[in-house]
Design a protein that fits this description.
Elements (H helix, E strand, L loop, with lengths): L1 H13 L15 H13 L3 H5 L7 H21 L3 E12 L2 E10 L4 E11 L2 E4 L2
Antiparallel strand pairs: 1-2, 2-3, 3-4
Helix pairs in contact: 1-4
Length: 128
């Protein structure tokens, strides 16, 4: 029961954010951003995950993101760590996109979800 609750909380908290990709803050594609963001969150790298968030919203997102990375990385450790993040779909409409993805742990636990991204000044970031 605790394992399912932790997984559910992880998905819910992680779904509040999305973005980045490519090198540095922000990114070149919505899918690349989701992949970079999810890897950072699941590996507990809050600083890297924050670079995926719209710079105007980073300060207010910081505390929630710290909680998300703690939950997600703790769950992933129990499952042997992160094996992969796979982009399943990108539905781009102008400067907004919905990205479907799947995460898989080294013990084979798979989760599918989708996140929204937003293009700001040519760079893909977290959608509020």
């Amino acid at each position: 029961m605790k394992r399912k609750l932790a997984g559910f909380l992880c998905v819910m908290v992680c779904s509040l954010f999305v973005g980045c990709g490519g090198g540095g803050a922000g990114g070149n594609s919505p899918g690349g951003g989701v992949k970079t963001y999810m890897k950072a969150v699941i590996e507990g790298d809050t600083k890297k995950a924050l670079t995926c968030i719209d710079p105007a919203k980073r300060q207010q997102a910081g505390q929630l993101l710290e909680m998300a990375t703690a939950i997600a990385s703790g769950f992933a450790q129990v499952e042997g760590g992160l094996d992969s993040v796979t982009i399943l779909s990108e539905d781009v409409q102008g400067d907004r996109a919905q990205v479907g993805y799947q995460t898989k742990t080294k013990k084979g636990v798979e989760r599918r979800d989708s996140l929204r991204t937003e293009k700001i000044n040519g760079t893909w970031y977290v959608a509020p």
